[in-house]
């Protein structure tokens, strides 16, 4: 079994996780999809932050999103506010295990120094409590003693020694074996540990050696402590030391980062183990999470630091190997061929889900993966058109058809959207021209005529780039638009414009207009735009939406009189003709893009650290920060964005993309791009970025004929490979490549994972499936008025629908049995205190509690969002773990 470690989507006021690249939206809330609901719940604000100790009182604040202490996202800075509004959305797949999802509020002072105001930390096992709920969290105080992470492997052993005088002495051996996941402080980690036997009247401490440049130190040192008691030896007293001694003594392990600074060494965390763990046995071994140090200096009351509003969506799936899903998957993939389509398994899913979006996301991804998305959408679109009575309302509702097309445009059209709109959006953001045309909102000194001309120029430019981009529209979108056009024209033969409005309701109203309105949600801008630019984009979006709708009464499309007046600029026939020509092109049968192969498409870009490739044998091989760009043609880097490339790697020369072991350079989040002559070593900013780069580089190079099957997981240093010790720099790899999938598999979509998501949805709505079965039975035997409780279901053929429902319930039941068996097996194998499930250290006298179930962290939430992924072994047996605590 593949355990998919969660998707985390947090949205809220001061730092959030959200599915940024979504393209399908509810018309009432363009540009956002926080989860199964169409309306957005973005990161809105922090409130009641403490005042700045100065005459101004205001603060310049930003928020970061962290996995434990690793920053994975940072908002823009909101200046001069104690209640900052961020409006930031962030989505990521989490590639590693973690304990806390944390949000930090920082203040930047006049000297551009950053200080922490407070934080919100949510334990991984508590994330389901806040799933998809707007929640205000109080900011907690942050200091050096509270910021800890990592775990320690500790072994305790108690033995007796008889002295020459006959006195029994209990000797305690404390062995600290290793630590894992310690934080890196200011770019370095040189840890050591102190081991202390502490009690009311004694404190004896000993210290390990310092381990240089590692956050996973291997200590393996043993320290001995004597626990003496004044009694003569006899066999009855063997290991029978007094209760009060046990309750008063503890072993404390403190981790420190050795520092050469005058401020002293930095505290990394501690653990405390009472000696009563040795009551039942003379030895005890366990892993422990490091804990904060309780220094009793909490001077601030809860709420004194303010609060933070978040909406977190976290989903964790357990995905079996592919053969487990065959019955349900095959049933779903036959949906396009079922007559009527309303009796198909995919359509049934849309009927029982609370929101159509819940069903659309995994269905579209599954059908795209197996090349069945166009037949399925064509089938459900034809069925919806046949039920539509008014051509003016065609595809205007939030039906399964509209949501599936939205999701398809999001998945297939993102590069097309960037290529079309990004240059114009960037120019608007940079030029910062005033375009306010509402006389009430004009600022002093602004000219209404000048603003109107600025806005007209922007609208003209964006309108032109859209209407001239038809040849670049992705083929899958064109095939869907063709089926929409044909279905609408056949249904409403007297309406000559319906073949255009059926397509424009998606490409303009649900694709281009939302992207212009909220460019950050489509990664067209890194953050939300400033208020003036946002207003400009709103006015442009309104105009483009009206132009694309081909409405017969343009002025009536606007509620505001100033918009109706502005639209007079575009009342010429050439604009309507341009829209129709564009719609004709993207909805033509068999149309193919002649430029799709030749034209470079920007896939990803950003700053990373690279190690010099060492083209000269004696050249310096240092690390430098560079701006990397990946297109479908080449992978390049330059000093800064916009500079000439310093190095260009053709995609066909990328033989493999793999992680680089941390021990190679004592640096985290490194990966290697392997070429015929050498490997390029790169360090990403964090684990999320590293995974994103590895995934996209692997995908674009997947079809290369000379891809490697083996590689070296470590670097070639000092005349040999660190992994296999081979001396030749051309020696074959010693480990199998992880990206060796067939070329026809789309790496960004996992068919098994999407089928698991659909199973979870069916399972969570089982009561509705059963009610739908009752509705089929009722309609088969009763011809009278339909019962109200069954009226919400679309059932065109009760017998065929009942047959499908029976197959769905059978398939879901079989998978549920497999999941139940997996949970039982996992519970049996769970060992509290193991490396994967460390213990939480306790104070003396606190006793031991067992909370295995709480620490498992499983979350059977059925919502169709999967972000974070812990491991991806293909196939395998049920019950195979991914290695997450």
From TrEMBL:
User: Any one Gene Ontology biological process term?
Assistant: response to stress
Domain C2 per the UniProt entry, residue ranges: 19-137, 148-288
Q: Does the keyword Protease apply?
A: no
Residue ranges occupied by any Ras-GAP domain in the UniProt entry:
355-549
The record's annotation in Gene3D superfamilies points to: C2 domain (2.60.40.150), GTPase Activation - p120gap, domain 1 (1.10.506.10), Pleckstrin-homology domain (PH domain)/Phosphotyrosine-binding domain (PTB) (2.30.29.30)
Q: Give the highest taxon in the source lineage.
A: Eukaryota
Write down what this protein is called. Ras GTPase-activating protein 3
Organism of provenance:
Nyctereutes procyonoides (Raccoon dog)
